[in-house]
Amino acid sequence: MSVKLFVGNLPHEMTEEDLHALFTEAGHVASAKIIMDRYTGQPRGFGFVEMETKLEGQKAISMINGRNVEGRPLAVNEARPQQKGFGGGRGRGRGYR
């Protein structure tokens, strides 16, 4: 079973290919995605990596969490499930007329 990891404090110069290559040190990478700002198109400084097995995910956390990449210590941990119904839209909340 695969495991999804959150990777924070990414250097803005890092590409998805760089991220994928970094995590292959720990095992098989199913996917690597850097989150981009929808308005500016610039990286937001974090991303997600999916490792093929839970064991490889734990290995990646222990190997890469805190590693200094281009002057920035990476934060790596297991991703939390996405919350439904939060963020994003501009709903008609209180005070909207």
Model regions low in confidence, pLDDT < 50 over at least 5 residues: none
Tell me the name of the CATH homologous superfamily: RRM (RNA recognition motif) domain
Question: How much is the radius of gyration in Å?
Answer: 16 Å
Helix content: 10-25%
Distance between the amino and carboxyl termini: 48 Å
Largest sheet: 4 strands, antiparallel
Order of helices and strands: EHEEHEEE
**Total strand count, please?**
6
- In CATH, the architecture is 2-Layer Sandwich
Number of helices: 2
Name of the level-1 CATH class:
Alpha Beta
* Strand arrangement in the largest pleated sheet: 2-3-1-6
What keyword list fits this structure?
6 strands, 97 residues, two-stranded antiparallel ribbon, four-stranded antiparallel sheet, Alpha-Beta Plaits, alpha+beta, globular, 20% helix
Summarize the structure.
The protein has 97 residues and is an alpha+beta fold. The protein is 20% helix and 32% strand.
Account of the protein in words:
- The protein has 97 residues and is of the alpha+beta class.
- The chain has one domain: Alpha-Beta Plaits.
- Helices cover 20% and strands 32% of the residues.
- The chain has helices at residues 16-23, 54-64, and strands at residues 3-8, 29-36, 43-51, 68-69, 72-73, 75-78.
- It has a four-stranded antiparallel sheet with strand order 2-3-1-6. The chain has a two-stranded antiparallel sheet with strand order 4-5.
- The model has no long low-confidence stretch (mean pLDDT 91).
Secondary structure layout:
Elements: E1 3-8, H1 16-23, E2 29-36, E3 43-51, H2 54-64, E4 68-69, E5 72-73, E6 75-78
Antiparallel strand pairs: 1-3, 1-6, 2-3, 4-5
